[in-house]
Design goal:
Length: 317
């Protein structure tokens, strides 16, 4: 079982790396031939975001799997209530809500990625992983660097014009601080001979600096963070664990991924309904609405996965 688990985690790490490479390199010719065209960026972003959305919909199955119907109903109602409040806050306070989501997302993503590597280390009987420096760099690089690039204004305008200037004139300071954080973390990893982590941080830095902001973030979210998180879910979800016992990594992954597909359908339909009933223009505003819903879902999702994340890194809560 441990061999199956490690095999899947290694496979997902490889796939996520190739996905980031693809997003980085496809952006070069598209950006050259269509420098002022935002449509291709929106299409790539929507596809990547849709692929990544199901990973957060299995929280109740791994954190509270034995709840009876009444308690599970209350749990889901509370989960949706927190999401609803977050959606309201983001609509009522576009800039402040965006700033808060950016910060907590960077923290959540970094901790999640560090937890993924910690799970691999356990199965390899390897120690000495500098978790904090890696988590900070792995989370802040793909979130903040695209948002302070020279192309961020165009991307933010396509999402919601109110978000342009979200950094209040501190774009340069944020850029150099996060770049330095990434380079320092890579140096720490190199000193520890953690070459795989050096490669990870280098790839995240590359897509953050080369790809348009929409593409960079969406590919990171849907094809890096979500894939790795789903891999970790297979270690907890009972049906996936049974597949691991049989050595079937493919079945293990898709049982975790498929468990979230109904939620993906609900998110897409709910987003369209939200736009219709609140007077937004569809499909022009669909990306903004979808991002708001995904960001809002991140709030309860982050709280629920915190225990699993810290446990993976050997930290008791």
């Amino acid at each position: 079982m441990l061999q199956s688990e490690l095999k899947l985690l290694v496979q997902l790490r490889t796939i996520s790396r190739y996905s980031i490479l693809f997003g980085t390199f496809i952006s070069i010719p598209l950006g050259f031939f269509f420098p002022s065209e935002i449509l291709w960026q929106v299409v790539l972003a929507l596809v990547a975001l849709a692929i990544g959305t199901p990973h957060g919909a299995v929280d109740h199955l791994v954190t509270v799997p034995r709840f009876k119907l009444a308690r599970m109903t209350l749990f889901i109602a509370g989960y949706l209530a927190v999401t609803g409040l977050a959606i309201w806050f983001l609509f009522a306070n576009n800039v402040l809500g965006f700033q808060l989501i950016v910060l907590i997302s960077a923290i959540h993503f970094g901790i999640g990625d560090a937890s993924f590597i910690s799970e691999m280390d356990k199965r390899k009987a390897v120690s000495g992983f500098p978790r904090i420096s890696y988590a900070l760099a792995a989370g802040f690089t793909p979130v903040f660097l695209p948002l302070v690039s020279s192309e961020s204004s165009q991307a933010l305008q396509a999402v919601n014009g109110n978000l342009v200037g979200w950094a209040a004139g501190f774009e340069a300071q944020i850029f150099w601080a996060v770049l330095t954080l990434n380079l320092v973390a890579m140096s720490v990893m190199a000193l520890r001979r953690r070459w795989s982590e050096v490669l990870d941080l280098l790839l995240l830095l590359a897509i953050s600096l080369i790809a348009p902001p929409l593409v960079a973030f969406a590919f990171y979210f849907g094809l890096w963070h979500a894939l790795r998180h789903t891999g970790r879910l297979t270690l907890e979800l009972e049906s996936s664990r049974r597949a691991h016992e049989l050595g079937d990594t493919r079945a293990s992954f898709f049982r975790a991924f498929n468990a979230g597909l109904p939620a993906l359908a609900l998110v897409l339909v709910f987003t369209a309904a939200l736009g219709y009933f609140t007077g937004f223009t569809l499909p022009a505003d669909y990306l903004w609405l979808l991002l708001v819903v995904i960001w809002a879902l991140t709030v309860p999702h982050m709280a629920l996965t915190a225990r699993l994340d810290f446990r993976a890194m050997g930290v008791k809560l």
